[in-house]
Amino acid sequence: MSHSLLDDPRLPDFLCSVDGELASEAQAAGCPHCGGVLHSARYARSVRGGGTDAINDYRASFCCAQDGCRRRITPPSVRFAGRKRFPSPVVLLVSAARHGARPAQARALERTYGISRSTLARWQRWWREKVPGTAFWRMARTQFISPVDPTCMATQRVERFNATTTLDNLVAALRSLAPVHDIRGHA
Predict the structure, then answer these.
(1) I want to staple 173 with a disulfide (CB 3.0 to 4.6 A). Which of 18, 82, 102, 161 is the partner?
(2) pLDDT tens-digit profile of 26-69?
């Protein structure tokens, strides 16, 4: 696995475009709680990791305009991995490399993006312990003909989408995982 896709200058714009589509879909659907109109309530996000400065941007979010509801709705994102401080592509590819048969490449990516061992250990626990118990995972695992081992979901998603070869494949893998990034219990 090469991290050349992470260094591709087109990646930030591509991810922003997909996030824009996800945000537009969420806003057009209205408030899932009361059906009210959603107004923009975006907030600043900054991420860590070398070469990802262009991803530092605003996270799309909405607030219901209906009196008595006013709930915040934050659509899925392919740029931001929930509350993680690293961009989604880094979280996915480093987790997959670390769990797979490429520990040397994983260490190189960890050094390049400044990921500590404790951070990587949290990511691994999150993939292994939190994700398999979610409604997202129960639905996602039915999308594949052969079963996906929940203990190595990041690796298998990268492999099944061939996410290390083209930006389209990487974004397809990230898009399939976007709902899982907002699962609490990770850092």
Answers:
(1) 161
(2) 999 999 999 999 999 888 877 766 444 545 578 889 999 999 99
Name the DSSP letter for residue 86: S
Residues 6+ apart with CB under 8 A from 129: none
Q: Single out the residue of 154, 100, 89 nearest to residue 128, CA to CA.
A: 154
pTM more than 0.70: yes
CA distances for 147 relative to 31, 43, 127, 150, angstroms? 35, 38, 16, 9
pLDDT tens by residue, 64-109: 999 999 899 989 888 887 777 788 888 888 888 777 656 677 778 7
Structure tokens at 130: 């939190």
- Residues 24 and 45: their CA atoms lie apart, in Å, by 19
Q: At what angle do helices 88-99 and 11-29 cross, to 10 degrees?
A: 110
Q: Which of helix, strand or coil describes residue 59? A: strand
- Rounded Cα distance between 109 and 94, Å, is 6
Angle at 106 between CA 105 and CA 109, to 5 degrees: 90
Q: How far apart are CA 169 and CA 156, in angstroms?
A: 13
Measured at the CA of 150, the angle between CA 126 and CA 19, to 5 degrees, comes to 65
Q: What residue ranges do the domains of the chain occupy? A: 11-181
